[in-house]
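hiii so my PI (J.) wants the whole complex modelled not just the main chain, which honestly fair. so below is everything: two entries, each one labled with what it is. i double checked the lines twice but i was tired so who knows lol
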Amino acid sequence: MEAFDLWAQLPSVLPEVGLTALAVIVLFADIYGSIATRRNVVFVSAVGMALLALVPLIWVPDPAQFEKGLLFWGGMVNYDPLSQIFKVMLLLSGAVTCLMALGDKGVGDKGEFYLIVIVATLGGLMMSSASDLILVFVALETLSIPLYMLASFRRGDLRSAEGGMKYFLYGAFASAIMLFGFSLLYGFAGTTNLGGIADAMSGGFDQGLLAVMAALVMVVVGFGFKLSAVPFHFWTPDVYEGAPTPVTAFVSVSSKAASFALLVRFLTAVFPPDLAIAGVVIQDFWVNLLVVIAIVSMTLGNVVALRQSNIKRLLAYSSIAQAGYTLIGVAALQGLDDSLAVASVSFYMFMYIFTNLLVFGGVILFIAATGKEDIKDLAGLNRRSPWLALFITIGLLSLGGIPPTAGFFGKFFLFQAAVKSNLVGLALIAVANAIIALYYYLVVIKVMYVDAGPDDEIPVGIPRSYGWALGITASIVILLGTIAVTPVYNWAALGAGGL
Amino acid sequence: MDATGFSVLTAIIFIPIIAGFVILFLDRQNRDLVRGVAITAASAVLALSLAVFFGYDNYVKGAGGLIDQQMTMLAAGGDLSGARMFVDALAFEQRIVWVESLGIAYHVGVDGVSAPMVLLTGMVAVAGVLISWNIEDRLREFMAFFMFLVAGVYGVFIAVDLFMLFFFYELAIFPMYLLIAGWGWVKLREYAAMKLTLYILVGSVFALVGAVAMYFAAGDFFSGSGAEVFQAALASGILPADSAPYSWSMAQLTLAAENGAFAIEILGIEGLSFARFWFPFMFIGFGVLAGVFPFHNWSPDGHVAAPTAVSMIHAGVLMKVGAFAALRAGVQLLPDGAQTHLPWIVFLTLINVVYGALIAFRQRDFKYVIGFSSVSHMGLVSMGWATMNLTGMTGAGIQMFSHGAMTALFFGVVGMVYDRAHTRDIPSLGGFMKVMPWVGVAFVIGGLTSMGMPGLSGFIAEFPIFQGMWAASEQITLQLGSFQLSNYYSVIVILSALGIVITAAYVLRVAGQVFFGEFDAEQFHDVGDIAATDRIVLIILGAPLIILGLYPPIMAPMIESGIRPLIALLGGG
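here's the output for the full assembly
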C-alpha cells in the first residue's frame, strides 16, 4: 500500500474543506459577532461560496487519473469532471440563495439560515463525488436534514411547519427504503465501493436476480423522492408552497442537481452495460424503469400544472416535469458511448439551476413586495416593474425551452441524447410535453405583460443586492443559450470520461 | 464563395436585435425617438436586403454567373449532384463554428429561393413599422418585439445550418405571441395568440425530432459506409475542411440524402425507409405554419386577432417561413420521402386552394376574407412544391414573394380602413374610394394580383404552377399499397382553377362593397384620407407586384437557379 500523500489527496475535497471552514466562521460570527457583523453574515456566506466555486475550476482533475478510475480518500471519493461541474453549480446556487434570502423577514435576518444552507450545500458536494455506499448515504443525509429544517424555518407559520413535517416524514421513509436497498447490495457484493459491487456481481453471480432488481428499485425509489419524480412527488407541491420562498428555490435546485449527479454515477458504476445476471442485462431493466418514470413525471407534472392558480404550486409541478425531462438524459445512458447523455444531464442541470433560481428570485421579490402568491396577482407587472417582469420572463422562457435562452439548448441536448439511444418515442412524448408546458409558462408571461391589474400604478422596487443576483442569473441564462454553450457543453461532456 | 469573412447577412440579423434592445431601454415618453430608432433600423435592413437581392441577381446572371455554370454543367454532364449545386448557389456566406463537438455552426447564406424572401422581409419590416406609427399603447415595447420578430424571420431564411433554422424559427414565436396577445383585437387576441403559438410549436418540435434523427443517420453514414463520399466531398470543397461526420450543415445533410444515407430501413417494416418515415414530420411540421390543410385553423383567427403590422408580417412573411422551411428541411433533405408523400399531400393543397377560397367568399368580416384568402393562396405554394418539377416549383417560389407582398398590402389596407371606420363589417362599409383613393387603388391592384391577372405578379406565379402541375401529371403516380393512381394532377389543376374563379368572385365583391357604392357620410363622418406614412406602405408593397408582373426576369431566373439543385435531388435533369 502506498503511503498517504495528503497533497495529492487534498484537491479532491478542497471545496468541501473550504465549505466546512466557512460554516464554522459563519457559526461563530453569528453567535459572538456584533450586530453589524451579523448583518454581514449573508455576504460572507454568499461571497465565500462564490469564491469556493472557483476552486474546482482552478484545481482541475488530471485525465490520466480519473480515466483509470483512481479514487481518493481510501476509495471514498471520485475526482473527475462530473463531480467538478456539479460542485460548481451547487456552490453557485448556494451563493445565489443566500443573496435572495436577504430581504425575507424571519428567514434572511437569522444567521443560522446561512449556516444551514452551507451545510446542505456541503452534503450536495459530497454526493456529487461519492463513490462508496457509506459516503453516499452520509452525504445524502447531510443534504436532506438541513433541508427539512429549512422547509420549516418559519416556525410560527402553519403552512411552513406542515410542509417541513411532510418533507421530513416522506424523506425519512424514502431514505430508509434506499438504505435497505444499499444493504442488499452490500449483502450481495461484500463491498461498499460502487465499482466493486459491479465487479462482484458480474462474476458468475446468477442467483438472486430478483433480489438485485429489488435492490435497484429501492434505490431508485430513494432517488425518485429526492428528484420529486412521479410517483414519489407527493411532498413537492405542499413543501414548495409552504416553505419560505428562498428555501423553495434552494430545495428545487440543489437537492435535485446533487441527486442527478449521484444517480448518473450510481447507475453507470453499479449496473454498467455489460452486467448481466442469469442472462438478463440489468441495464435494460433500469433504462425501461427510468423511461416509464420520466414519461409519467413529465406528463403528470405538466398536466397538473395547467390547473394551478398559485405561482409556487405551478412551479412545483413544473419542477416535477423538469425532473422528468432530465431523466430522459439518464435513461439515454445506455450503450458504451454515453458522453452525449452525461453531457446533456449535466448541461440541463447547470442551466436549470440558474433558470429556476431566476424565476424563484423574481417570484420571491414579488411576494415580498405584495404579499400575494396567485398568478392573477402578477397582472400588469410589466408596468409596475419592467425589469422584474423581464427577469421572470427570461426564466420562464428558459424553462419552456425557447431560444435564445439556455433552456432551448438544454432540451435540445436531452432530445438528441434520447434519439441517439434509440428512444425516439420518448423524445416525441417529451416534445409533446414541452408544448403543454409552454402553454402555462406563456399564460404567466401574458398575465404579466397583457393583463391589467388593480394596482397597476404601484411600482415594485428591486433592492440593489437583489438586482445584482437576478441580473447575473439572467445574464447567465442568456449566455448559456448563446455564446457560452460550447465551453459549458464541452466541459459537461468531459464528465463521461470518469464514469 | 468565401465563407470566412463578415457577411452582410449577419448585419441583417443583428441590426434588428440590437435596435430592439436599444428601443427597450429608451424613455417610454419619447415616442419620436422610439419610432426613429425603429424606422432607421428597418430602413437599414431593407437597404441591405436590396443590396443582397441585387447582388445575388448579379451573381446569378452575369456572364459566367451561376446560371451559366449550371447550364454548362447540365450540358456537359459535370458534377450534377444536388449538394454541389446547392453549395455553389450560396452567396454572402459566413460560417463560424458554434458548438464544435456537435457540428453546429452559425452559417448564413442566401440562394435563389431565399434571396427574394430576404427582400420581402425587409419590405414588410419597413411597412410594419410605418403602419404602427401611431400606436397609442406601449409603443416602445411593441416596436422592440416587432424588431425581434423581424430578426427571427430573417434568421430562418438565411440559415444554412439546420440547427440555426430551428433556433431562429423558435426565436420568432415568442415575440409574435406577445405582439398578438398584447396589441391584437381585444375580442379574440388571447385565444388566437395561444392557438397560433401552440399549433406552430407542435409542428416545429416534431420536425426537430426528425431533424435530430437525420443528424444521427447522416453522421452514422459518413463515419461508416459513406466515409469515402465524405472524404471526396471534403477534397472537392463541397464541405468546409473542418467538417466532422456528424454535422447540422444542410449541405452535408443534402449530400447524405443524395448518397442514400436516409434510405435505410427502419422499424423493421419492409419498404418503410428512414426518409419515408420522417418526411411527413418535416414537411407537415413546417407546413403547419404555411397553413397546410387540416392544420390551417390557426391562421384566420391569428391573422384577424393580430394588430395590423403583425398580420402583415405574419401572413406576408411568416407563412412563407413555413413553406420555405418545409422545402429546405423537408424536400431538399428527404427527397425520397418527398416522392412518396407529396403525391398525396397534393390533395391537401387542393383543399387549401378551393376550400380556403370558398370560406373567404362567405365572410362578412373584411379581415377574415383576407385571412382565408391567405390559406387559399398558400395552398398554391405547397401545390407548386408538390409538382416536383422546375416549372411548378419556380412558380411556387415566385408565389411566395408575390403573395407575401400582396397579402401584406391587403392587411395594410384592412388596417387603414378599420382604423378610420372602426368596423370591418363588409356590408356596412361602402364608397371608401371617395375618401381614401390610394387605399382603394391599392386594394384593386392587390385584388387583381390575387386573381392572377396578367401583367401583375400573381399571374407570373400561378401560371407556372398550373403548367408544372400539368407537366407533372404524366410523371407522378400515387402508390398506396396495391392502389395506384396516375394522371390525376391534371384533374387537380382543373379543380384548383375553380379556386381562382372563387377568388375573383370574393375580390370583386369586397372591392364593390367596400370601395365603391354609396358612402355613408353620416356614419363615417370622421373618416379622412390616409397619412403620408401609410402611402409609403402602399407603395413599398404595391409597386413590386407591378414591377414583377411586367418584368419577371427580375426574379424568375434567380428562383429557377435556386430550384435546380432540388430538381437534381429529386432525380430530374
